Structures are given as C-alpha cells and as structure tokens.
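[Automated response] Your request has been received and processed.

Submitted sequence:
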Amino acid sequence: MLLTVAEVVSLLAVVYGVALVYVPVALILAGLMGVVAVERQLASPRAHRKESPS
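Generated structure:
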C-alpha cells in the first residue's frame, strides 16, 4: 500500500511538471498512466474478481 501511495505522488509530480510546460501533453500522459495503473491492478494476483459464468 505504501508503495502505491509513493507511486501516485511521484506520478502526480511528473504530470504537474509537464503541465507547467504544455497542458495537452500532460492530459495525454495522465490518461496513459491511468490505463497502465488499471492494467497493473487487474493483473495483480491480489485482485479479488469474481469470474462470470460462461
């Protein structure tokens, strides 16, 4: 959990720094990082997902 908080804070700092230079690139970067974060959470073995019946 602590690692996740540290990752979020560091990524927010990166996005903020990019936004100071060029906002559209910061928005694209934030979107890509959001997709990566969701994929990491879905791929983690700790994810408690119910399998849907086929």
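Summary generated for your ticket: Residues 13-41 form one domain. The longest helix spans residues 23-43.
If you did not submit this request, please reply to this message.
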